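Anyone up for a design puzzle?
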């Protein structure tokens, strides 16, 4: 059966922990790239991104190449999409060419769920609209695991544009699987309602001293219509800055999936603060995506 990687919800805690540990092994191997086994030799993956990306697309490319594979970066802007070719026909064309996996990003929340049964190669969700970003979810779990040596029982505040965030979507799925407590902070209009006891709305400032990690989120200006945002007011109310960092416990970490708006949801001096793991998350994106490609394409892997 084809193994698609579309949502963290399709994994058990045990399966997801296996992936986190496999990513951790790759993270060690990345220190000596010449020793990485060529698990994707003679395999070709296609990056098919209908929305912009820096981290996800490039880290999938690095991940595939570190494993000895090759990558096609399909760009809808200079392709037959411009002649009206549909998403289905585009993906089916790439499948016909013989690539081993399709890494796919699109603004539609559920397009892959609708298409998956027609494909015989692994589809990997590299960001689906406002719904899920499961490969980001895995790298976030890896970052938390490296920091705390466990996932169960951690407390994480998520602050910002949660309603439009597929990163938050996947983190909340993972939280339910692992028993991570999530505090939803930020403007009421950007917070989803939750009926899950592990996920609750909270005041940002009073939550900061309680948590192990704070995940700051970008305001997704491109997904709002007519949004009027006063950057200074927003930063004062919900931004990560030195005043709020001092309210956090010394062991607690600052996270952000990127790209970040310096001075809006996070001040310049917090991006590379000693408690920030933002660039560590990006670094972990390669190991996490190596684990996902190996899982999707190879039956055995490490
Ligand atoms: N975090 C993330 O998905 O970044 P990109 O949009 O640059 O891929």
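Challenge accepted. My sequence:
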């Amino acid at each position: 059966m084809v193994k698609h990687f579309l949502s963290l919800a399709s994994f058990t805690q045990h399966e997801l922990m296996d992936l986190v540990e496999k990513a951790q092994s790759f993270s060690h191997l990345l220190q000596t790239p010449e020793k990485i086994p060529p698990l994707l030799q003679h395999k070709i993956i296609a990056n098919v991104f209908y929305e912009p990306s820096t981290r996800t697309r490039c880290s999938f490319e690095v991940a595939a190449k570190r494993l000895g594979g090759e990558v096609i970066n399909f760009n809808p802007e200079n392709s037959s999409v411009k002649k009206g070719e549909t998403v289905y026909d585009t993906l089916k064309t790439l499948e016909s060419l013989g690539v081993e996996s399709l890494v796919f990003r699109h603004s539609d929340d559920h397009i892959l769920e609708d298409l998956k049964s027609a494909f015989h190669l692994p589809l990997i969700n590299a960001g689906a609209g406002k719904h899920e970003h499961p490969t980001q979810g895995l790298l976030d779990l890896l970052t938390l695991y490296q920091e705390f040596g466990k996932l169960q029982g951690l407390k994480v505040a998520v602050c910002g544009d949660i309603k439009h965030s597929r990163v938050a979507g996947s983190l909340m799925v993972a939280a339910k699987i692992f028993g991570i407590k999530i505090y939803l902070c930020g403007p009421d209009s950007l917070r989803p309602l939750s009926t899950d006891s592990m996920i609750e709305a909270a005041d940002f400032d009073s939550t900061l001293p309680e948590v192990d990690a704070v995940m700051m989120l970008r305001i997704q200006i491109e997904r709002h219509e007519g949004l009027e945002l006063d950057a200074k007011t927003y930063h004062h109310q919900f931004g990560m800055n030195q005043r709020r960092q001092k309210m956090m416990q010394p062991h607690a970490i600052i996270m952000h999936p990127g790209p970040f708006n310096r001075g809006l949801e996070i001040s310049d001096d917090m991006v590379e603060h000693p408690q920030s793991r933002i660039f560590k998350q990006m670094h972990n994106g390669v190991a996490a995506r190596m684990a996902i490609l190996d899982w999707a394409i190879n039956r055995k892997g490490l």
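A detail worth pointing out: The radius of gyration is 19 Å.
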